[in-house]
């Protein structure tokens, strides 16, 4: 059984490393596969230690297994975008070396505890990226906790005072534990591959929905995310506000200062607007120098405040773009639903009309479109200086 475990583990590790070499951004799979190959070397060393009754070879085998689990933990942490502490990565292998005077039984017991600790730590890292996975998908976190439990089960059947190295593993339960370990190792490898595949798909989808210049949603991404947010808000009867934001005199900026400066202006605006509107707002580049945003669970006053905050920040940020003075302003049109029926296209059209009136009013202002009724509605315009004036009019749009 031990020989079969060595072969299966080695082949599994080689296959994972090979798959990682033929696939971009597969660091987790590659590192995990390398660690599994190291597992096979550790198991082989333990088999040889039992064959030749060598405590030195046994220690080498245990060290290889502990290093392997340390690599798996480090790979999991890097996969989650977190820094790996060299101290924590080495404390297990170094701690095991310090147990040499304590005897074979305690060495094996401590190795089991260290390996279980690394497995639990890796599970703690990966749980952050398992959110959103479907119930039928393999979860590395659960499998790692099982692996830790199987590893600790060795403590119950070890012979802590063996007559020889082979006596450590003389329990009749060891073949069953080895079989369970091999099966779990294979299933866990499949779960790791699935996790990285899902991450790659998510990254690819995000890239397809993101504007490469500004980092905001592109037109396709905006419509997808905005419709999803509106559908969710509509189920709860919550009002939805739509903003259309257009940079003023952008063509003149390009003509006078060059397209590089124009790109910097776009990036600056997207950054400011994204931060001020917040992560719960669907904000994207609608086309050219025009942007759009969808705010859910809001009202007229809150939408106007948010728009005015963006307008003021962008107006005050012109000196940041380049050493040469560049005047940066934005005009914004806002439309809000009635909380009962919501249509994204209709709200965008109304917001676009409000944006057009803002341009006609002298630019660098925010204009709100009232309810789309023929019975009359109110409109508010925020002047360039930020002063709010109200005017009543009957409107069919």
Give your account of this protein's structure.
- There is one protein chain.
- This protein is an alpha+beta fold.
- It has 2 domains: 2-208; 219-393, Alpha-Beta Plaits.
- Helices cover 61% and strands 11% of the residues.
- It has 13 helices and 7 strands.
- The chain has helices at 2-21, 27-52, 55-79, 86-97, 104-126, 140-157, 174-208, 219-235, 250-257, 259-277, 300-316, 318-321, 344-360, and strands at 240-247, 282-287, 290-296, 330-336, 366-369, 377-382, 388-393.
- A 7-stranded mixed beta sheet has the order 2-3-1-4-5-6-7, with helices on both faces.
- β6 (377-382) and β7 form a beta hairpin.
- α3 runs parallel beside α5 (104-126).
- The longest helix has 35 residues, at 174-208.
Task: Give the quaternary arrangement of the chains.
Answer: single chain
Order of helices and strands: HHHHHHHHEHHEEHHEHEEE
Query: Which outline best applies?
Result: elongated
Q: Numbering strands along the chain, what is their spatial order in the largest sheet?
A: 2-3-1-4-5-6-7
Distance between the termini: 78 Å
Given the helix and strand composition, which structural class is it? Answer: alpha+beta
Share in helix: 55-70%
Tell me about the largest β-sheet: 7 strands, mixed
Round the Cα radius of gyration to an integer and report it.
31 Å
Indicate how many domains the architecture comprises: 2
> What's the number of helices?
13
Q: Strand share of the residues?
A: 5-15%
């Amino acid at each position: 059984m031990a020989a079969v475990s060595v072969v299966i583990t080695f082949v599994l590790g080689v296959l994972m490393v090979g798959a990682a070499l033929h696939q971009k951004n597969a660091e987790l799979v590659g590192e995990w596969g390398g660690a599994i190959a190291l597992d096979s070397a550790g198991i082989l060393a333990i088999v040889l230690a039992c064959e030749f009754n060598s405590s030195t070879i046994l220690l080498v085998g245990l060290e290889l297994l502990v290093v392997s689990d340390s690599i798996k933990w480090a790979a999991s942490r890097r996969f989650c975008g977190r820094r790996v502490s060299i101290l924590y990565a080495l404390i297990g292998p170094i701690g095991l070396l310090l147990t040499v005077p304590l005897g074979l039984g305690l060495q094996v017991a401590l190795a089991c505890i260290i390996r279980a600790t690394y497995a639990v730590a890796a599970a703690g890292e990966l749980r952050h990226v398992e959110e959103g996975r479907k119930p039928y998908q393999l979860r590395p976190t659960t499998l790692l906790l099982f692996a830790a439990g199987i590893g600790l089960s060795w403590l119950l059947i070890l012979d802590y005072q063996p007559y020889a190295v082979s006596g450590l593993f003389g329990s009749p339960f060891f073949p069953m534990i080895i079989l369970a370990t091999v099966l779990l190792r294979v299933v866990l490898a499949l779960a790791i591959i699935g996790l990285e595949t899902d991450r790659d798909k998510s990254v690819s989808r995000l890239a397809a929905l993101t504007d490469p210049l500004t980092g905001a949603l592109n037109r396709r991404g905006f419509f997808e995310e905005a419709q999803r947010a509106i559908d969710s808000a509509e189920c709860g009867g919550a009002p939805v506000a739509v903003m259309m934001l257009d940079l003023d005199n952008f063509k003149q900026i390009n003509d006078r200062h060059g397209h590089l400066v124009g790109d910097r202006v776009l990036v600056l605006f997207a950054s400011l607007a994204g931060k001020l509107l917040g992560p719960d707002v669907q904000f994207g580049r609608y086309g050219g120098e025009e942007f759009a945003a969808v705010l859910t669970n809001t009202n007229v006053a809150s939408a106007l405040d948010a728009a005015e905050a963006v307008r003021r920040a962008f107006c005050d940020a012109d000196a940041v773009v380049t050493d040469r003075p560049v005047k940066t302003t934005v005009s914004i049109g806002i439309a809000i639903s009635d909380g009962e029926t919501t249509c994204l296209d209709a709200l965008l059209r109304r917001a676009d009309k409000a944006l057009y009136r803002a341009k006609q009013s002298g630019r660098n202002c925010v204009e709100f479109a009232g309810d789309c009724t023929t019975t009359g509605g109110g409109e508010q315009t925020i002047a360039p200086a930020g002063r709010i004036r109200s005017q009543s009019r009957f409107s069919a749009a």
